[in-house]
Input
Amino acid sequence: MNTIEAATLSNMTISMLERTAMVLAEPAVEGDVHPPATRFARIVYRGPSSGTLVLGATEGFLRELAASLLGVESMEINIDIQGSDALREMANIVGGSVILALAGGVCEYSLGLPELVASAEQPAGTVSVEATVVAEGGVLRVLWTQYNMPIAT
Amino acid sequence: MNCNVLIVDDSPILRMAIRKVVRLAGIEDDRIHEAGNGREALDVLETVWIDLVLLDMNMPVMDGEQFAIELKKNPDLADVAVVVVSTEANHERLQRMRDLGVMDTLRKPFEPEDLHRLIGKVLGVRE
Output
């Protein structure tokens, strides 16, 4: 069974952002301080193993993401409606990419529905892989947690 | 192009993004319809002639697979062209969709050109 390292998770996220919304992002430089994420979306997957993917974004990032998807100016974005919707959909898309990477070949994984959550907090005792990417508008953090098998850190 | 397209996705922002691409493929805006889940899509199909359904899989209320099953049951709607546009990767589920008559699948994220090409291909075949 495959696993996903932080660099892979980061590259996957960057690629999904570019392909979905033409948002150009890059990996955060280690040691740089970024504003904390304020909006979170989570998606659960099940199959040969189960886990979650949580995306946390700053408001600026969500504005840029939603504006790019809709082809409007970022100030026109309603962060509670379009921003949240864009974050949920991005969790869905990155989640789809994660399960394909985990499957390697024939995919037996299934995704749940993406949902907004209050924080990126994970159950005690679980180990997560985290990637942070930076775009013009702000920061997106991606946290992958696999529950029933050891994961690479 | 004188065809009616139905976009079925629970994400309003994705529906709008897909709508833009469908317009670029030559479909007039008033021929593009939207539904937030399979149940709403069936309601649209009862009132509007639809040539192509662009169908997400993971949706609340009624998901894409259940929608395809319901469509197949209805002789008036069984021949509507359906293309899955989704993050769905589960091979068994995708095989079941093909068995239900889905014409093609497009994985999210997709390039606008991919969807554009697919619309042309499917509607060309239908014409």
In short: The CA atoms of residues 23 and 29 of chain B lie 6 Å apart. Helices of chain B lie at 12-24, 38-47, 64-73, 91-99, 112-126.
